[in-house]
Amino acid sequence: MPIVPPSKLAHLQSNTRNIRNVCVLAHVDHGKTTLSDALLATNGIISSKLAGKIRYLDSREDEQQRGITMESSGISLYHKQTDVEKDAEYLINLIDSPGHVDFSSEVASAARLSDGALVLVDVLEGVCTQTVSVLHQAWVENVRPILFLNKLDRMIVEWRMTPSEAYTHMQQLIEQVNAVLAGFWEGDRLAEDSRMLDEAKERWRETHGDAPMTEWYLEEKDDSHIYFSPEQGNVLFGSAIDGWAFRVNHFAQIFAEKLGIPSPAKLQALMWGDYYIDPKNKHRVLNGKQLAKLYGAAKVATSVPLFVQLCLNPVWQVYENAVINVDQEKIDKVIGALNVKVHPRDRRSKDSRVVLTAIMQGWLSLAQACMSAIVEQLPSPCDAQPLRLPPLVHKSAKSAAESRPAPKNDVEKALYECSSGFSDAPVPLVAYIGKVVSVPRASLPEFSSRKVQADRVTMSAEEMRAKGRDAVRRELALSRDTPTGTPLSVLSPSDTASPMSSGITTPLHVEAAPEASVDSLAEAVDKQLVLKESESEDEILIGFGRLYSGTISVGDTLWAMQPKYNAKDAKTLPFLKQTTVQSLYMMMGREFVQLQSVPAGNVFGIRGIAGAILKSGTLASDAQACPNLAAIHTETFPIVRVAIEPINPQDMDKLARGLELLNQADPCVQVVSQTTGEHVLVTAGELHLERCLKDLRERFAQCEIHVSEPIVPFREGIVRQSAQPGVVLGEVGSSGRLLAIISKASSKSVDTDDARAKPEDLPRGEIHTATANGQVSLSILVEPLPEKTIHFMTRHARDIKRVVNLASSQRRNRLNAAAEALDEIDVIASVDSDSDDEAKTTKPSRLSELGPWLSTRIHQTFNRAKGWEPHRVDHVMEHGLQVLGPRQVGPNMLIYSNQVLEQSGRTNSSWYKQREHNGRGSSSAATPYLSDDESDSEDTPSEGVRSANTARDFEESINTGFQLAMQSGPLCFEPVVGAAVTIKNITFNPEAAASSDAIRSASSASALSGQVITAVRDAIWTGFLQWSPRLHLAMYTCDIQATSEVLGKVYGVINRRHGRILSEEMREGTPYFIIKAAIPIVESFGFADEIRKRSSGAAVPLLIFRGFQSLNVDPFWVPTTEEELEDLGEKADKDNVAKKYMDKVRKRKGLFVERKIVEHAEKQRTLKK
Question: How many domains does the chain have?
């Protein structure tokens, strides 16, 4: 087909009804890019013979080398539908997406920009882990899918299946996919039922009071429309590599007349399922029961279903004659019977696949079948947006199966109608930017070297200079078009920064007269913007977005809303910025076609948002009325961290600029700048890390960098087992840092030099400590929480966070990016597929009822737990539990005894309301220091001493000490999991306060608060180590598909990496085993390469983060019993895996690590005789 000119594609953008926005989703290596190549060939972009080989949309070098897609990319295609009454022209905006789990964020962006999806499934591998993930992503985004069963050629050539066997196998496969969709539907229905029940109860209370509700029933809803069914036309069968595909309607149109059926649609309804041609009357179709009634059950067993007879048998015959048993005479007969045109060169080819491809492409064109399915089955933007946008506009809406809601204002009306507006009647403009990509400057048409060279050939020097002057004038006029009526109070401080093309925001230095007008000031700013733009780098940031309403044009000034912006919250104004559209593009894979305007319903590229939108955001003409569409659901989060520094210190600025650009160009990456000046890169996995480092070296920073070993998060916990004797907390310096963990010493308290040493009769984990000046003494008990409690609190971390934020009187302003990343890791770790069904069905939808529900459920998890008597649990959950940690949401508890509650004056308050009663509010773990107003207080010594005489005065200090101890445990300064800290008693010593030494040492109440914080933290550490400590490892779930020949090698690699097998099953009808294993992330680096090498490429693992798991090994374990000493000796040559991990983390953090050092090397000798 000849190349379709871009002007024709641009013209089709205005016909919204004939636009289809579709993404291609699948598990890795299931054929997405090969399918995309075949569709590209229809527009003459590549040759049909190169489809599946050139991988056109994989524009990166490493994508071509690895053979997998790493970045989603879009392209616009032309399609002419000829099988309708009147030929219609369609614009297909196709988005190819990655299949590897490390790049799930790219899938999320592609799904948000699309209205439909082509979901590919390899018929041999079946439904894999990422297949479920992409189906869930499509479900969450309310994207209508089409199922493509790919690689049917392998069933014929490799497995040598008969058509009937293949039909049975595909039936089971479609049922598996539909079972996944049924699970999604059931989950949403349960959540909706809970919400409807809460609303019905509320209405009942308003009318009937406390009387029991009797009049309520659940409305039944039909779910048949969500499933894949070949007779409905939403399932394709084919082989992307051989270039063919079909739907059952294709064969229904061919055979309807031959079978005497008046309508192809009637035959299509019978083409899938238990239907057969009547053996005696060839013009009649019978179902299984009718056939058995007429000819007996034995006839049903030997008969061939209609789908096999009409669809699969002809395909099998072509492969049999062209590939398996090559017969040129039969091939000629097949070509004649099918009436396809095959070039004589292809007929003479010695490669049988060339002949086969030519026949199948001419008979069952893959592109024609896919394009027709997209046009007929997927909605246009006008039909899709009323169903997809309500959940985004109104966050609580559930419109997957509801009717179209009525718009509430002009913005919603324009969004639901997908209105482009007119020049005399404009509509509000709303666009969503799904991702920001970095492209080489030369790739853009306005900076293309080819364009410049062509101009130089055809234009004189004077003409070129005149053209340059005109371009400068246009840029100046463009930059001055920013409205001057915007009040300065609306703009955030960062709006006075210049967004360079590299994504770096640099301060603007504008010199203006004291009485300068707003216009003159804006003009000065614009001049610097133009200057900075002219000095742009080699990489330019382009936004990849979707226009939902209005028409966007070059030169428009729009508001850019980042995901955290909320029009109702003035504190979020820094996340609202104003930007000017510099260029618009039609995305054509590796190339960009410049546009002057884009109407609603299209996907597009935009230049000019650098600095205004980092990863994703919303563009709008009215920031107050437009909803923020930037929140996005993704299936993966960054977990692997590395520290980065330049080899040449002079390149530090380049590295900082490159990291900033990488952070904007990759939606899943996180860049954290530590207080020490260290740059930390956080990625989703090993492959994602490799891609980011390659981009950083070659494109963004363009300098050599040194990368540390991957930094993997750990957690610390305790269990109710006998502790290793002789393990104590070592010396604690004035800064509070743990300097050593030592063994072979008697059990002591935090301070071993005074009378505060732990008495032998104290319970395990109980510590008596005091401040350095002796004014305050505390009795603290540390003990482990039950496993069920830990699991429940971890699973419901998001709910706890919502409750805590609701009760909080002040927000946590000092959370840095690292703390937020750790929060997300813990939240994602809480998402467990084995979550209890009861929690899903009974969790209230109202936020005000969520706190009591969580409290009740936590109380139930203590049932019959060792060491937790019922009366004590009642006390804890009724009013003893004060706060959770770390960061107020972790699975650790700070509990006050009755005595301390009486001292503080509060004896009846639920834990989720504590922050309301705390007066000033807790400062949380993210602020391990006093608040600014406290630290700057100037209390006199006597006032400070006199005021600190009740337990209530120490609440904030105790909470801060608790949060610090939970944030950094004693083993290796990693967050703690599953610890309950009880403050049993607080004693104020007036004699110590009255002494002059005490007064001199405590110059203010702030100094005393700091001493309480330190004492609490160190006491918790000491009590922690009196139990049996454990490390919790971040774990991957590893899914591997392998044949029986390599199973032993796969198991060997998993065992060497300290992994364990969770399950193993054989996929029915295939020679493949599906192995599910768990492997520590710290051992996973290089795992994929090793397992591919050991299995000769037959096994490919897929690693997905699953959470944290306790390593049941005491890091301080040494042989003690006679048997252990006899087997292992005193030195215990067997490696202690937990100690190895602990020492590795401590060494990285600069903490003390016990090592054996050779003091007198000259005295060593080798005993060989």
Answer: 5
